[in-house]
Amino acid sequence: MLVIMGNVTDSSTIRLLIADDDPMVCQSLTLLLTQGSHGLINVVATCHNGQEAVEAARDIHPDVALLDLDMPVMDGISATRGIKSTEPGVHVLILTSVNPRNNVERAIEEGAEGFISKADDINAMVGYITEANAGHPQFSTSSNQQLLEDMREIRLSTRQDEARRLLYTLPQRERETVVYAAQGLSNQEIALRMCISERTVKAHLTAACDKLCMNRVMLARLVERAGL
Question: What is the tally of helices (H) and strands (E) in the chain?
Fold first, then answer.
């Protein structure tokens, strides 16, 4: 249920929209943020799902929107996209009670300017909202850490894709030989497994080294990076 407040605000206050599917959270945050900011923050609307938040932002033009990550109808990240598409000047912060795994980068891509944990004390929340309103992105320690982990995973994934791309430039039999060699098999063992001669094994490995400009140690590392 959307609740639009009737408070009169002046240009010095921060007009805040809160969206959370728990009415008690909306009520508590409204009271605590208003009191904790000594009137600097004025909650102009509370919503209980992402769709309501998008519609409210379009109608009342808040300065900052504080959106719960997990909401029915439309989650916080989708709501961020909806709000930024119609009200690009609204500063969006994501509110969450869990580790925002795999969500930090997605939220940033959609235009969110920070994550706030429900475990943060009210003074910290006031600070995050005030700084976000001034155009300074705000991320809690856990969201910063998660963003770094997500970026690390992306880098690892990119390296793996590149390694596989290189290996798949080789003919299938050469690639199979390289993979077996990387697993520590001897030329004789590779020959038996592939039903070819040791001479052919050596020829495959030499050809692969020449094509990729690598020695056998480098090929083994490439296979390891590719996860094959």
Answer: 10, 7
Same domain, 57 and 27: yes
CATH of the domain at 176: 1.10.10.10
Query: Structural domain tally of the chain?
Result: 2
Residue by residue, pLDDT tens for the chain (228 residues) are 566 665 545 667 999 999 999 999 999 999 999 999 998 999 999 999 999 999 999 999 999 999 998 899 999 999 999 999 899 999 999 988 765 556 777 788 888 888 888 888 899 999 999 999 998 887 655 555 555 455 555 555 667 777 888 888 999 999 999 999 999 999 999 999 999 999 999 999 999 988 887 888 888 888 888 887
pTM of the model: 0.61
CA 148, 150, 156, 161 dihedral sign is: negative
Q: Which long-range contacts (CB under 8 A, 24 or more apart) does 171-176 make?
A: 173/204, 174/204, 174/205, 174/207, 174/208, 174/211, 175/208
Q: Are strands 114-117 and 64-68 parallel, antiparallel or unpaired?
A: unpaired
The C-alpha atoms of residue 29 and residue 62 are separated, in whole angstroms, by 16
Could you tell me if residue 205 is inside a domain?
yes
One domain, residues 82 and 126: yes
Domain span at residue 11?
3-142
